Amino acid sequence: MPSHSVAPVESVPPRGRATAAVDRVVTGISLWWMASPITFVLSVFISVQSRDPIWARVSGALLAASMGGVVAAPAIGLVLALVGRRWRARRRFAAMAAVSAAVIILLLLLWELIRECPDGYHC
């Protein structure tokens, strides 16, 4: 009696499902990183326009999501790409990490320059 007649038939092998899941997570992390500048600008806009405590919490949540996208998304994606052996994704997340690092360094430099100007003076 052949063994294949008893075994259930699956349309996608288990490895194929795992591959598709990793691809979806990689895409989601990439989208999170790409949405980070939008959420950052929206957070700043909300915090400048509204003084309501509820909107302050919304602004804080958006700020946390954008900072997490800038810092955590490339790191998580790079680890996932290395573990999942996704070489194209690994290069993409390495480039994302480089761009994020450059933006963070420029923002820290800008912050230091803004802090140097004393109050009441137009530097």
TrEMBL record:
| Protein name, UniProt field | Major facilitator superfamily (MFS) profile domain-containing protein
Cross-referenced PROSITE patterns: MFS
Q: Where is the Major facilitator superfamily (MFS) profile domain?
A: 1-123
Keywords for the protein's UniProt record, in alphabetical order: Membrane, Transmembrane, Transmembrane helix
Q: Which InterPro entries match?
A: MFS_dom
Q: Tell me which species this is from.
A: Streptomyces dengpaensis
**Which domain of life, per UniProt?**
Bacteria
Q: Where are the transmembrane segments?
A: 25-48, 54-81, 93-114
Q: What is the lineage of its organism?
A: Bacteria, Bacillati, Actinomycetota, Actinomycetes, Kitasatosporales
